[in-house]
Fold this sequence. Notes:
CATH class of the largest domain: Mainly Alpha
Distance between the termini: 76 Å
CATH architecture of the largest domain: Orthogonal Bundle
Mean pLDDT: 93
Radius of gyration: 26 Å
Region (Disordered): 268-288
Shape: globular
Low-confidence stretches: none
Order of helices and strands: EEEHHHHHHHHHHHH
Pathway: Carbohydrate metabolism; tricarboxylic acid cycle; isocitrate from oxaloacetate: step 1/2
Number of helices: 12
Organism: Inquilinus ginsengisoli
Keywords: Acyltransferase, Transferase
Enzyme class: transferase
Largest sheet: 3 strands, antiparallel
Structural class: mainly alpha
Oligomer: single chain
Amino acid sequence: MSGRPEKTPQDWWATGIIEMRPGHIAMRGYAIEDLIGRVSYAEMVYLMTRGELPGREAAALLEAALVAAVDHGPQAPSIAVARIAATCGVGINNAMASAINTLGDVHGGAGEQCVALYGEIAAALPEGEIDPEALHRAAGEAIDALAARGIRHVPGFGHRFHPLDPRAPRLLGLVDRAAEAGTVTGRFAAIARAVEAVLAARKGKPIPMNIDGATAVVFAELGFPPPLCRGLFVLSRSVGVLAHAWEEMQSGERNKGPIPRHLIWSYTGQPARPVPKPREDQDEASTH
């Protein structure tokens, strides 16, 4: 025996998130019937993950970030997987789960990584007003630290399709407006712009912030810890996944692979060669 008291059945899944008994449901202390119709989905996400309801302005920022990342077309692996799975006869939940399970460190993890990067830079800066020189120095040191770990692509910056990701300036503008209103500090927006400036100076060309870098600004300004930020991206992208899976289900296609049927992939293996004869055949041939 460990000496610790045994948990009762009631304490086995003890939680501070929901209270539920016959005729009663409450989330973080708020009766569900009082939340319904009064609280937006973004506010509910904030309440469930952070424990308190956000102000309307903070909720609007979170909602903007969730809206911005819902979809990026079938070239995005998560969307492509949803559509492929939908043609295999699985249910819509299976198609969605297949897609969401592709959201890892490379596809879907940059937002979390970028929030962590911003946090490292913020930790190296003094509290209060940020000196531009100190800000750029801290940003450069953080980028150097990534390079020292073998990370060549700074998460949240640059895009293989968009010379300028159209979602990023819009989100940054909303953060600026919220900072002017005192809803957020604007500290992480300044950090993100410093990273962008350092990258441009080092590369000799603009490396603009992408959707992950911009949503990371929003999440960091709102105080979300990095691991939660990947979950927020999953919530956002799930909307696009759902829409694409459902659309593909209406197409009537079956077993739709990643390339059209009339195309054959490039084979890079051994040239045509004969199968070796079984050893017993070789032994028999050697006796004649």
